[in-house]
Backbone:
């Protein structure tokens, strides 16, 4: 069912709830009377897919997740997770989901196994089922050798693995991951991506919030970019890039550029120690650089990426 895509608001009408693990329509949330955190958010996530919420701080991602996980109630709109209404059937939603917060909720004084056992007991698991499930997850996440060590002795990557294992202990249909790879080194992050792909392969649905654009691009079936409480773009990452861009980016050292960006005939972005030039005609851009005596010995050409789209849609100026 992922061969084609329609926007969240369009797909919500008339869909079979069993086809979608997460559905939301017209969510509104206001704080302290005048702060509109959500302003009509609609989205759907298919069962067995990875869906990502992207957005700057204050965009509404956390509020959306709080509503979908029953930690907050919307002022207007409706949402269903795993087929259950998040307001009227909140208890059923909680049994059907797993949540991994940005900050670890593990007990550092307990062992990895003990953390898993405690989580299972909270969800009513007992006896052989409880112990076998804990051992299964310890082996699956490569933590079996450290199972009886206290969590405070785990590396950051090991702790994040255990966080996810705890979230999966009761076999939830939907897993919410809030910036799960923040602070991990590149190798640990890529290992974590493999774990998320394995979770998806089990037909579980993952809703991921992240600030790593490459993470969203390579992991997610659908991304939704939020700003000011609204979803401003939604769809498969590659499709979104094709819809919004028909150009490439030329990158060169800022020290080589040497002129006022406002005098250059193409859009210029000053990004730290480099200059980025947007163009659909590379030959034209090269001619403009050479005509102004700008060296191109360190020039790089790259296609547009998800970070470019994010910055453009959330309002970053091209000329600074």
Residues:
């Amino acid at each position: 069912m992922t061969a084609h895509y329609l926007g969240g608001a369009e797909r919500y009408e008339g869909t079979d709830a069993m086809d979608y693990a997460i559905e939301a329509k017209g969510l509104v949330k206001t704080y302290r009377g005048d702060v509109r955190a959500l302003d009509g958010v609609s989205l759907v996530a298919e069962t067995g897919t990875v869906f990502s919420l992207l957005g700057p701080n204050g965009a509404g991602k956390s509020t959306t997740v709080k509503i979908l996980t029953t930690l907050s109630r919307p002022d207007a709109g409706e949402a269903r997770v795993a087929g259950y209404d998040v307001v009227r059937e909140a208890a059923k939603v909680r049994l059907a989901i797993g949540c991994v917060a940005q900050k670890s909720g593990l007990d550092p004084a307990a062992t990895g196994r003990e953390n898993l056992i405690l989580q299972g007991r909270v969800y009513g698991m007992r006896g052989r089922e409880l112990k076998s499930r804990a051992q299964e997850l310890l082996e699956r996440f490569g933590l079996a050798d450290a199972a009886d060590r206290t969590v405070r002795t785990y590396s950051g990557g090991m702790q994040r693995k255990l966080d996810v294992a705890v979230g999966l202990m009761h076999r939830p249909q939907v897993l919410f991951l809030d910036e799960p790879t923040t602070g991990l080194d590149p190798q640990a992050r890529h290992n974590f991506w493999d774990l998320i792909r394995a979770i998806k392969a089990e037909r579980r649905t993952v809703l991921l919030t992240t600030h790593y654009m490459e993470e969203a691009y390579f992991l997610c079936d659908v991304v939704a970019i939020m700003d000011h409480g609204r979803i401003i773009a939604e769809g498969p990452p590659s499709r979104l890039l094709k819809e919004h861009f028909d150009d490439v980016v030329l990158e060169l050292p800022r020290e080589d550029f040497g002129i006022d960006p406002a005098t250059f005939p193409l859009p210029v972005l000053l990004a730290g120690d480099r200059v980025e030039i947007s163009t659909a005609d590379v030959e034209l851009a090269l001619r403009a650089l050479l005509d102004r005596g700008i060296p191109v010995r360190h020039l790089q050409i790259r296609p547009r990426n998800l970070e470019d789209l994010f910055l453009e849609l959330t309002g970053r100026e091209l000329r600074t």
